Structure formats: structure tokens, C-alpha cells
């Protein structure tokens, strides 16, 4: 298959020409081409978005359901949000529950579901600081332990799927876990952490790559104690991951301050979506001031002000509006910060691919790389998505939130 | 008099040549010169430092003593800190006391003391928020009042001396005072303020120019409420004043974060020194954990840990080490942030001169401007200072702190 656009965003160049896909890969780029092609003339072809921090989306939740079926749903529907690959993200649950997640990831990897590619697992916890737990379970926040880490790692049939870990580096035992992660090419990020600036400065060379949902769940910036937030802004060699830019969790102005310091080379956009409709119990979302309650086959959403809604959690059209989508987050961010297509490409694809070591096949448009493409119009409306060469273009669903 | 250096820092150029002074002014710059000259070959000639926020220094304190004699001492000794002009800065005292300060400034202006030039007054308060008063007197923090402002302004015999005001813009009545200041070319800055980001966004077009001792005495940066600190970083058109960079009040890393966002074009270095030895009563410096107590002709310094020192407050050599000097602050800052000579020139001279509207005669090295020069070596040690053409070179004292 061949695509044409005036705006194919390569790593260092905006290319006007033809992109040839074959066997799920990008075969070649041509200036001229005489055969049949799909015409995206004025649209922008970006490398597919990679979400390295997503627990669930719409009809599937890895975090809540802990089974391969949830990942199958995420693979199916994430392209409608512009996402072509992702890290299934677990939370601070019991070790037994996290092992269930790991098994689900292995199973999904082997099944190789169509749609967005599940690249592996992001372990958000269990080694996090209960004081900064946010919506994680307090009783499951445990001290870093090399033994537990080895057990988790060994729980993976395919070890490569263990790709990323969020950890509170100030906790006793963190250094041993960081060392293990570095040796096994598991990227690590500071999150749900009370680490001071000095603690981060002291431990960063053990191999910490960045910060999880920068500003949230960490010690904030104070002018006498810069904290983890200050360290995130200060250290040029560390990456800042941001959760979806609703403008509520991190105000648009504070994101922009971070963007102006870090630049698009040191920011990774994620969603941190949960697939809230898939909760298996009662989930209290205190920031949004609403509870999600499983009620037989339905989900009941009870707002703090008393309003109630009922939804079928498996009805994609019904639940897709609950959380801001990846493309919606990027559109929102682009409204409030000065970004060009290269900035967007870096923050959504190139940076995350390099960060989790999949840039040999993801993260940019180049011959030999996977045929993962996200096509948008100039207003960042989604036009089409290609996952490993296969176009996914469900017109009704694809417009994202 | 003619000076030679390979490194004369003009506004847009590093000039290798000869600088001619005459009648207190810079007469000309020459590439070639055949007469006698003072040789500063490898030293750097900068426009003189302008400190727009200084209450007192060493043997003189405008804030504590409230008389022209204090200003005479400041004019005499500030060149030893690299400062060639300054704004005498009052505090939140009673209106009667502030009027005494104003009279002292008028008297000093008319006397035209030798040394650093007193350019006018920075009124730090009384319109500040008592919750963010820092070391100001709570009972003297009052709501902004146009009537009080007019009375203060009219207290000046020479109205031009009323140059700058620090104000808490969230307080009722602030808009009228800001309007008055704008009409009378009195620069205003937000300080000792609990203003939210939104409040600043709403009022900034009334003519607020910047922020006083950025980060200190204001609402800090939080990712959901950027506060005054966030506004200081965010708004490109507003200036950030920083008090002396000891690294304690504002950590070097947080200063550097601000520097990387604002750039040297939007930062003004000041000292906020008080001339602590000149306290007239007992002054509790809770940040430094020491008290300064007037005891007949001496000052007693009582550390919280019980240690005591006695000093003669009028002995410059004895008291000059109490507070970090302007040049010491710049040296300290330059150790922790990547600055070149142009950056230093802007933050110490060009920016403050423009900010308080004296750039017709101060702030840069150019023919026609005042002969205010600060000569340093490559490590920012003070070599010589020229105040309106007159060299001040007391070898023993000039090395600064």
C-alpha cells in the first residue's frame, strides 16, 4: 500500500511524497510514484502515538480486569485515539494480582491481538511511597525489594515485556532494584515519591530515566527544596512523562513552563487512562469527584453532587467519553503551548520509543520500521491510523474525544 | 580619563579598545588611542551594577535609620560591592516613618553624595499582604489606598525619586494604586502577595512590571494553582527580580530553572540587603536564625544556638561580612548557572535601568551615558569601580565579600 502526503513527518524532515507499506513495515519513501495510492495530500502523517502509561481505555482495563481480554479490547480501540502501541500499566496491587497482570500480558503478547501493539508492561509500583500514593492502594505500597523484583521479572514468560517501572527512589532498597532494572534494560522513572532533590541527585546515576506523571504524586517545587518536581525540571538528562493534558491535574500554564524548560526532546505524553468503566468494585475518583461502581453487568457513575449515570461498560460508544483520549490530550496541549509537528512527533512517538528501547522498530517514519502511522488534519483531528501496516479507519469511532 | 580593555561589554558587542570618560560621562569609544590610559587589558569592563532593591548595606541602613546619613554611607560603600547606583528601599513601616524615609531620600538627592548614585526610592509596601509579610511588620501592612499613595508621592520634593513600588495586587484597591503608578511612571512589582495566577492574569495589564524577590513572599508554584511564582515564570513580558543568590532563600537549582525559562533578558539581580548591623531595636532574622540587637553604640548578634558577637556598626570592615554583597551574589550565581558577560550585564545593569526608566543615562556602556563602570576579573573578583567617572578603588575594601 502506498500513501501520499505533503506532510510526512520524518525524524529530521517534513517529507512531501509517497510512503510505501509492505508486510506491516515501512518499505520505502518515494519522491515520485506512478501507481495507485491513498491520498492524504493535506493531512499530516505522523509516526503512531506510543502510550507508555495506560492502565485501561474505554472497554478494557488491564489494571481493573487483569486479563488478556482487557488487553484485546485496548488493542482494538486504542487506534481510535491515535495510539498504535502501548505499555499495559499495572498498579500497586498485591503481588499475586500483579502476577495476574503479568500473565495477562504474556498471553496477549502471544495472541498478538489486532490493532494497537501491546509492547509490554509498565509496573507502576508496588515500590511506591504510600504518602504519595494518589489513587493507588495504600496497603499494597511496599518497600523496594530485590527478591520481589526478581520474582516479578521471572513471572514474565517473555522477559522483554518487562519494560518500565515507576518507583519511589527514596525508599530503602531502591538502589538494588534500580540496579537490577538497569541490568535488565527495564526503564525506571520516579513517581509516587517523596524524594527530595538531594536524594534524586544522589541516586540518579544508578540509572533512573525520568519522572512518572510529572508534578502529580511527588514532592512539589519549593524554592528552598526543589523536590522531585524541581529535579524533573532541572536535570536535562531526565525525561518528564505527563499524563493526559486535561488542564486540571497539571494546569496548562505549568505544563507550558515545563515544556519551555525541557523542550520537546525531554517530554513524553501519556494518558494514564484507567478504563474507569471497567472497575470491578467501587472506585472513588476524588479528583473528578465521582465514584465508579460495578453493578452487575453495568457501571454506575455517582457524582459527588448526587447525579447518577448508568452505562454498559462494554459499549465503546457509551464509555469512550469518560476519559480524555490520547489525541484529545495532544489537541488540548497544542492549544496552550507552541508546538510544531516535530515537537508533537517527539513527545508522542520518538521519545517514548527510545525511552523503552523499542526505537529499532517504533518511534519514527523510516524504511524498515513498523508501519505505525497516525494521520491527522491541521487541527489534530484524527483522519486515519495504521497499525503495523493495517489501516484502522472506523469513521464513527475514530474522531476520538 | 581613558581606560583600555579587550573586554568592554557593550549592549550588543564585546569591544576591544579604549573607553574615554569626561565630566562624569562616557565620552567615546576608540579602537585606537595614542595618549595615556589606565590598562585593564584582560579585565572585563561592565556597566555598573544597579541594585533596585536594597534597604541598607554595611554601615548604613535606609530602612532602619531613615535618615540621609544612612544613604551617605550606602553611597560611600556600595562601590566596594560593585554597585554604582541603587534605589533606597523602604519597608512596611508606619506612614509617618515612610515619610521620614522619603525626606531622607530627597535630602540625599540634593546633597548628591559621592560614590554610588541614589536614584530614588523603592517603596516595598505598605500595601502588602500580612500573610506573606516575611520580615516586614504585620501591623504596618495596609490595604492599597489611592489617598495614601498620593500622600506618599506628594511627600517627595523631587517626584522623580518615587520610582518603584512592591505591592500585593490581590488586595482591594490595588487597581487604583497601579493606575496611579502607571500614570506617574512608578514601576510596580508583585511581592509579599498571596495573589493567585488568575488574579495576576486579570490585573497585569493595569501595568504591573514584574515580581519582587521572586519565589519569596508569594504563593508558590503548584501544578493545579501556578500561583505568583508560576506567573513569574510564565509571563514573558514580566520581569523577575531576585534577591542575592546565597543559595539559601532560593536554591541555586530553582534559580537556574527560572533563569532557563526567563533568560537573562527578564531577570534583575538585587541584594535586598538590610544593613542589619544598623538595627535600631531588636531584629529577629528567623531565616538566618539570629537576632540583631542594638546595644548602646554596639550591635549584638545573638545566634539561636546561643553564640554571641559584638560589633561596632559603623566599622565597615567589621560589618561588611554580615550580608552577601552584590558582587558576591553574582559570583555565586555565575558558579551555578551558565551565564556569559552579556547575561551578567543584562541582569545587573541593562534590565534594572530600563525597568526603572533610567536607561537614558544608565544600564549600558555607550557614549553619552554616565561613567558608571564595574571592572572585574574573569572570576568575577572586583578590580575597580567608576561612579560617574570617578574611580573608587579602595584596595582593602573593594574585594567584596
From TrEMBL, chains A, B:
Q: What is the lineage of its organism?
A: Bacteria, Bacillati, Bacillota, Clostridia, Lachnospirales
Write down the top EC class of this protein: hydrolase
Residues engaged in binding Zn(2+)? 124, 192, 213
Q: Which organism is it from?
A: Lacrimispora saccharolytica (strain ATCC 35040 / DSM 2544 / NRCC 2533 / WM1) (Clostridium saccharolyticum)
> What is this protein called in UniProt?
N-acetylglucosamine-6-phosphate deacetylase
Residue span, Amidohydrolase-related domain: 44-391
The similarity comment for this entry is: Belongs to the metallo-dependent hydrolases superfamily. NagA family.
Give the GO molecular function terms.
metal ion binding; N-acetylglucosamine-6-phosphate deacetylase activity
- Catalytic center residues: 272 (proton donor/acceptor)
* This protein's UniProt keywords: Carbohydrate metabolism, Hydrolase, Metal-binding
Q: What's the domain of life for this entry?
A: Bacteria
- Cofactor needs: a divalent metal cation
- Which GO terms of type biological process are on file? N-acetylglucosamine catabolic process
Q: Name one Pfam family in it.
A: Amidohydro_1
Indicate yes or no for the key word Nucleus.
Answer: no
Extent of the signal sequence: none
Per the UniProt entry, the Enzyme Commission number(s) are 3.5.1.25
Comment on bound cofactor = Binds 1 divalent metal cation per subunit.
